[in-house]
Amino acid sequence: MSASAASTGVTHSSQSASISTNAGASSTGSTTGQGQSQAAPGSDREKIYTWIIELTNSETRENALLELSKKREVVPDLATMLWHSFGAIAALLQEIITVYPTVNPPTLSAHQSNRVCNALALLQCVASHHETRSAFLAANIPLFLYPFLHTTSSSKTRPFEYLRLTSLGVIGALVKTDEQQVINFLLTTEIIPLCLRIMESGSELSKTVATFILQKILLDETGLSYICQTYERFSHVAMILGKMIITLAKENSPRLLKHVIRCYLRLSDNPRAREALRQCLPDQLKDSTFNNCLKDDKSTRNWLGQLLKNLEQTPQAQPQ
């Protein structure tokens, strides 16, 4: 990692985004806040409150962002402290809005990326916490991140990549909770086409987080029904997944392949999608292309086997 492009803030933020790809892990960070509110010593809590107050001052905000982002995994109730502190969330949103002009034309610097990623890391903390999540969604805060997810074609520089990745991390933290309200909210937004765009042309890590988000949407009954409701939606998803399989046959990435196969398996649970997949499932998933890649991943091998089994079943004859 280039020192000029990644100071501590971005490093922490991008790592937090990548944590979101682990579907079996607990919610991103340690921000559950359940019975752990006394974890931070009194002197540390005073520092936390001081930094939160400093968020509202433009002259002290940058350092406060950096210090608070370092503490988000060791102060369990940081999310509630931020949410209920006057001006704190507004200051984080101001940091995000401030860099909008650097998106188009793409002029975002490494320093600007570091700073806004620290703000995004704190929003991810709020998104992860069970006491602040509903209010976070009700305030439509995820929508403030979407302009950053539109940047795949405009810039592939490291500052933009960290910005996309950390933004995806916030959405990943939301879907990781498996809560119906999260899926319902996301389905009213453009998150699916945004994820598909990143899955097609993002970096490997961004593709992995975006595919994880799509996977979690599909695993919800409402999400699966939404995507399979029209041929256009299903075909767009199937087309991108197919392109990814072709790419993965050339570029080994077991973690990304795992999420893609899980998406296919979930789609096969829908009768109409299952019938379509019989015609369009990539040959690379039917032959031995990925045998070596999956030799040490029993769960993904089982998913692939179940997918192929689902597609082999003969459709039931329609009653006369």
Kindly describe this structure.
The protein is mainly α. The chain has two domains: 7-14 and 44-181, Leucine-rich Repeat Variant (Alpha Horseshoe); 190-310, Alpha Horseshoe (Leucine-rich Repeat Variant). The protein is 62% helix and 0% strand. The protein has 17 helices and no strands. It has helices at 8-19, 42-54, 61-71, 78-83, 88-98, 110-128, 133-138, 146-149, 158-175, 180-187, 191-201, 204-219, 221-228, 231-248, 254-267, 271-280, 298-312. α11 runs antiparallel to α12 (204-219). It is elongated, with a radius of gyration of 21 Å. The termini are far apart.
> Per CATH, which architecture of the largest domain?
Alpha Horseshoe
CATH H level, superfamily name of the largest domain:
Leucine-rich Repeat Variant
Can you write the helix and strand succession as a string?
HHHHHHHHHHHHHHHHH
CATH class group of the largest domain: Mainly Alpha
Structural class: mainly alpha
What's the total count of β strands? 0
* Global shape: elongated
